[in-house]
Amino acid sequence: MSETAIDTNKLDAFMGKAVGDLGAALDAALILIGDKLGLFKALALAPTTPTDLAKRTETHERYVREWLSALAAGGYCNYDPVTQRFSLSPEQAFALATEGSPAFIPGAFQVVTALVKDEEKITTLFRTGKGLGWHEHHHDLFHGTERFFRPGYSANLVSSWIPALDGVEAKLRSGARVADVGCGHGASTILMAQSFPKSRFFGFDYHEPSIRWAKQAADQAGVADRVTFAVSKAKDYPGHDYDLVAFFDCLHDMGDPVGASGHVLQSLRKDGTWLLVEPYANDRLEDNLNPVGRVFYAASTLVCTPASLSQEVGLGLGAQAGEARLRDVVTKGGFRSFRRATQTPFNLVLEARP
Ligand SMILES: C[S@@+](CC[C@H](N)C(=O)[O-])C[C@H]1O[C@@H](n2cnc3c(N)ncnc32)[C@H](O)[C@@H]1O
After folding, report:
1. Mean per-residue pLDDT of the chain
2. Which protein residue's CA is at the shortest distance from atom 12 of ligand 1?
3. Global pTM?
């Protein structure tokens, strides 16, 4: 392309955007460092100097000063030139330093850094067309995913998603059998078990280290008496009398979601319900070209599509499948009823009935 074809105003605007994204990309590692070392939690307590923050976190002042300066430039903390102290606003502290808050975000950046570490493996996939299993990623992906998703489940699952399903809450209160398939570290399973003590919960995932982690988490949460975790795939987990089967953000990671749908159908009671939570997406690509779609298409390229292509059938549904394609998968599995129960900015909450 000749130089005259370049509109310098448009180039400047694009480079401005790219510099902003460059800083954001580098911030991912800084946020994870602050999370791992307790820097955000200590900074949330009071405005502080780098020296004090380093003392309180047993870290080195020179690194902490540079870290604070970078985050202040990026809007992840604040700097007061009069007092020369750094601080977090209540909102920044809620999102960066409060592990149980519904806005807690460092887990998402843990996912980002894990995927950057896997970039060489993923680049190769573009040439070979092969898949990459969930289990083949850096272990921070498993912990980051749990910490990224758990705040959303805490904020929505019991208070809004389950009540949006037809008759399910009452069954869970009186005592139901529930399978949580592709449960990962079991955050959703444990939350449900805490809220519905008369019900029995069975968490399944093919990834053995995740199941081991989930078992420990259930012990620590005091719900091991009503939760069982086991290694199993979505197409062959045991049981055929579940009142509720739940899939949280995992159907599109599977190679054969239609086969999984068929297995869910035969594992449910006749009056049972399949709760399917998938990333929020519209049906058309052009309607997903927004910040949420950007995050999910990127995650889909780096994790979800390779995961699906690594398994049998290898449908590669993608994390932005949208309701119409999900309906197709679910009904091909044999379900007769399918509807959107509710949604959040990040999730489609779908209900299928036999
Ligand atoms: C994005 S993670 C979601 C984990 C969990 N549901 C959550 O919301 O935190 C996707 C999970 O699906 C699991 N998975 C992928 N394919 C599977 C299959 N065929 N059968 C069972 N689990 C599968 C992975 O091991 C992983 O734990």
Report:
1. 97
2. 182
3. 0.96
